[in-house]
Fold this protein.
Amino acid sequence: MNIENIRKWKHIMKLDPDKKISEKNLEKIVGSSSDALMVSGTQNVTRRKVEKILGMIKKYDIPKILEPSHPDCIVDGFDYIFVPCVINSDETMWVVDKHKEWIEKYDINWEIVVPEAYIVLNPDSMVGKVTKAKTNIEKKEIVAYAVCAEKFFNFPIVYIEYSGKYGDPEIVRAVHKSLEKSLLFYGGGINSREKADEMAKYADTIVVGNAAYEDINRAVETVVG
């Protein structure tokens, strides 16, 4: 795991295997100076869909990340596999069980695996519902989760996920202040340069997803760094 390369990233564009994107829009994304492409989704993600989108992006000279929702969706050909653990979930399935299953069933190239401590904060999001994340928590609890991820479990990445909703910059700022070594990723509702700049003040890396499917021109305007 080479975290030093990841430390340089300021912006990631997230692609959902369950959504269609044109070659033209992919070219716009790659040409936008985003630092990496992340293939990630919660609903209806299959191995075939992951392979299809990998086939579309593999020709581009840009780091490619797979963030799987299930071990069976992991395919070869990505530069990194970011593995989320939803640390504010009520179910151990999303903290450790699926991860154990992956280890039991597959040979893993640990050199490309990067664990992420996810803190999901949008109760209306699909990821929040599926993982049964405890989203109605105060800022001090969110900070405590982040510090726990860094100090107890040595996660290289703490990921504040609002998933489709623009989050509270003060929460992101507080988490940023609490971390010493772990990188802070933020994702959720970034669909303008103004929002990108605001969250980039506190997050080491911002992740933009839905905007790529809603308005590609606004999506590429979010690239910071």
Remarks:
- The chain is about 35% helix and 20% strand.
- The first strand starts at residue 11 and ends at 15.
- Residues 3-220 form a domain with the TIM Barrel fold (CATH 3.20.20.390).
